[in-house]
Amino acid sequence: MSLGYGNPYSNWRYILLSQFSILFISALLSVFPPQYYIYGYVIYLVVVMSITFFISFRSNPLLKERKYMGEIMKSRTIFEEKDAKEIMEKDEEYIKKYKESLKRNGYFMLYFVVYLAIILVIYDDVLGIYRKMFAANHLELFLVFFVTLDAITLINIFLSRKVMKGATSQTMAPTKYRVTERGIISNDATGVFLHARHLPNSEVTENREKRYVEIKSNTIKLPYDIRLYTKDIDRLLDAIERVKKIEIKRQQSSSSQN
């Protein structure tokens, strides 16, 4: 599967979750005394992390696909590329995009650290000012915290988009991989895999000059862009075609039984 730079706030579930988080923290800061903050934060973290995991699993098809990894790994190997790194490094265009991606991720991490540091520095002062101004009215204090936190969230979204501007789905290129009867799986740290059931509907292209085969998704529901560099492009293409034929026969047999 390919990695992408999705904006979490493009998903309405995450927008609702962010608003719930702001409501909860605003209520915690405005109603409860400071000695109860730690308990409130623990409850908040447990609830939000549980909801986030559930939303991610339900809305991200790439996570659902991981259950098929074992099936791919256990199947009989048709083709194996043990070292495509040297071939990949000769593709200057890909290496350039890969370095730009690493640089962009580095900028984003730096921005996040600076953003978090600023929040931590001003947190106590702002909290103290608000408490002095609205100590007599919990509702006003709640509204002030809510508006402030919502504004911080909007600023964060705006700055995140600026930092990640121009980021697109990244083509994944494993340096070691296997083609089995049930799909494609990497043997390196990229964690790339693609189940055979997606191959019949995938777009498969080849570049003999740069010695790779690229497999792309034809649907936005399950995005992937996998580039397989190899020393033997003909054998790789034959292996992929063989897996596609096996899968098509399996799907036809399954539908005829139903």
Automatic annotation (TrEMBL):
Top-level taxon in the UniProt lineage: Archaea
Keyword Kinase: no
Keywords: Membrane, Transmembrane, Transmembrane helix
Record InterPro entries: UCP014484_TM
Name recorded for this polypeptide: DUF2208 domain-containing protein
UniProt keyword Plastid present: no
Stretches that traverse the bilayer: 12-32, 38-57, 106-123, 135-159
